[in-house]
Amino acid sequence: MKPKRNQIRGLAITPSVLADIKIILGSPPFRRDLLIEYLHLIQDNYNHISKAHLVALADCLKISLAEVHEVASFYHHFNLIQDSKQTTPNLTIRVCESMTCKMFGSEELSMNLKTNISNNIKLETVPCVGQCSNAPIAVVGQRVIEEATVENVLGCKSYTPQIPSYEKLAPYIASGGYGALKKCTDGILTRSAAVKLLSDSGLRGLGGAGFPAGKKWEIVRQQPSPRYLAVNIDEGEPGTFKDRTYLESKPHQFLEGMLIAAWAVEAHKCIIYLRDEYAACRQILIQEIKAISVAFPNGLPSIELRRGAGSYVCGEESAMIESIEGKRGIPRLRPPYIAANGIFGKPTLEHNLETLYRVTDVINHGSNFHASHGRHGRTGLISFSVSGRIMTPGMYLAPAGITLRELIDEYCNGMSPGHELKAYFPGGASGGILPASLADVPLDFDTLQEHDCFIGSAAIIVLSDHDNVASYAKNAMNFFAKESCGKCTPCRVGTKQASALMSARSWDINKLKNLATVMTDASICGLGQAAPNPMKSVIEYFKEEIS
Ligand SMILES: Cc1cc2nc3c(=O)[nH]c(=O)nc-3n(C[C@H](O)[C@H](O)[C@H](O)COP(=O)(O)O)c2cc1C
Ligand code: SF4
Ligand code: FES
Question: 349, 365, 381: which is the final residue of a domain?
């Protein structure tokens, strides 16, 4: 039976809610792919999304309530409520519970906040918000509180993001910025020459997988048009904050690289997917995209900025594309690959922010720019996000192949006083854990496999003799269990089972090893495949802590 007018499958549309929603969403036509953007608009306005809002939104988009609900409930940042009359807190305080923040007391902070906050404040524990060098971190509304304490969190009176000082368009252009793009668009460099330059530079994707960038461009260029460029600024890997650091200091170097890549593969549209946690970056991007569209009124591809909604798996490239299309961020089965079948089924070049940032360097300085750096037989540069038990945590651009010991001594001013190196995560929560005895291994793509680890996004978390390594591996597994999208059983069930087994004082090593094998072999995306890595490292290197 067809639903009656003013009803969506038996649920009445509230005319006043529908009218309000239409004001919030702006003028029609409403786009199905903007569903997540619309949910953000509603939530920003009311601090929650009620059932009546979902019904009205479904009506605006002419889709079923079930479709709207399944998307809204997938993302952690949407606060869904049944009844719009229900009172909801008007402020949310989020406390990061990931590894580095745990190291600096986030559990105690959460407990103490819980006993001190009033009813109109919602307290949530959340995974890494990409600010690890100033742990522990709390976020009050959208205001990041570094080295958070009960006093500075409750004393915070401004809930909007603090915008750091960064290089704006005029000084960027004054120092030669957008010269590399001009070289391309003026025909000084042909598209094939640009692709060759990139291939010769050896630049590899810096989102974690390390796929050669030039090769990716070549593959996408061979696909029929129209083509898209998608930019991945989801930066959800716990411990990683390099993309934010670049965006908050030199946004135009990234934007220039993005425009060069779009030119090279003749993409008509660039879609930038930014994690919701980076509210300051969002304002910077809105402002600077506007600035370039005024400065270069002709010939720019269209640029759209999208807002993630608190889902780590959306950093996986095909999940990100699903999310861009306004769906749940569930990774696709491959083939087909996104280079041939990406956004709306069209060929898509997807890159991490830093990869595009480096493209500008390569076009400006030539293919040797990367190859001339490196150490211990490795070539290139790596942006390490370093946090934990060191004197000066931060993001450091260092030669590929540098060892952890060198990184700590030369860039981080040594270990924190009274701390002796015990272990380190070389690649965030996914990359496994290495013991101090392997602090002299060159850090790069392909150098850590023999130790069952990988460098990924180069998020280094340093642990000392004050730390129990197994408890950090468990923290990582809990994170994967919460973030698993649930599509495949080995990941959905495996992460939860492993998490439970890792809570025991003595681990059931055989069971955990079997679980690890099934998860690695049978999960369809990198989340489930990599989730067992920290646990396997503890079994290999820190048995005394778990038996
Ligand atoms: C679970 C998961 C999360 C990921 N998160 C990110 C991310 O936050 N940012 C990113 O650039 N790549 C992330 N990736 C890697 C992307 O799938 C993809 O390889 C990358 O965006 C390609 O860009 P690149 O070639 O410039 O590295 C993730 C992969 C997986 C499996
Ligand atoms: S491995 Fe996990 S996160 Fe990836 S698709 Fe399967 S269930 Fe989803
Ligand atoms: S901000 Fe807390 S671990 Fe990254």
Answer: 365
Atom 6 of ligand 2, residue of closest alpha carbon: 488
178 and 322 assigned to the same domain: yes
Q: What is the pLDDT of residues 411-444, one digit of tens each?
A: 999 999 999 999 999 999 999 999 999 999 999 9
In this structure, the residue with its CA closest to atom 1 of ligand 2 is 528
pTM attached to this predicted model: 0.97
Is residue 212 located within the same domain as residue 336? yes
CA of 318 to the centre of ligand 1 (A): 9
Q: Show the tokens assigned to 399.
A: 């030669």
The answer to the question of residue 235 being in a domain is yes
pLDDT score of 10: 58
Q: What are the E-state strand segments in 334-491?
A: 348-352, 381-388, 394-399, 421-425, 434-435, 459-464
Ligand 1 pocket, residue 315 CB under 6 Å:
yes
* Residue 316 · residue 525 · CB < 8 Å: yes
Q: Is 526 in the pocket of ligand 1 (CB under 6 A)?
A: yes
Q: Give me the mean pLDDT over the 34-51 stretch.
A: 96
With a pLDDT cut of 90, the percent of the chain lying above it is 93
Mutate to test the pocket of ligand 2, among 322, 524, 529 (most ligand atoms within 8 A of CB): 524
Q: Which of 345, 365, 385 is the last residue of a domain?
A: 365
Q: Where in the sequence is the domain holding 428, given as residue range(s)? A: 373-466
By DSSP bridging, strand 421-425 and strand 434-435 are antiparallel
Q: Who contacts 492 (Cβ-Cβ below 8 Å, separation ≥6)? A: 484, 486
The predicted-structure confidence for 328-345, as pLDDT tens digits, reads as follows 999 999 999 999 999 999
CA 318 – CA 199 distance, rounded (Å): 24
Say if residue 135 is in the same domain as residue 174: no
Residue 521 in contact with ligand 2 by CB distance below 6 A: no
**How many angstroms separate the Cα of 388 from the Cα of each of 144, 166, 394, 408, 451?**
19, 26, 10, 11, 22
Is residue 226 situated within a structural domain?
A: yes
pLDDT of residue 459: 98
138-193 pLDDT, tens digit each: 999 999 999 999 999 999 999 999 999 999 999 999 999 999 999 999 999 999 99
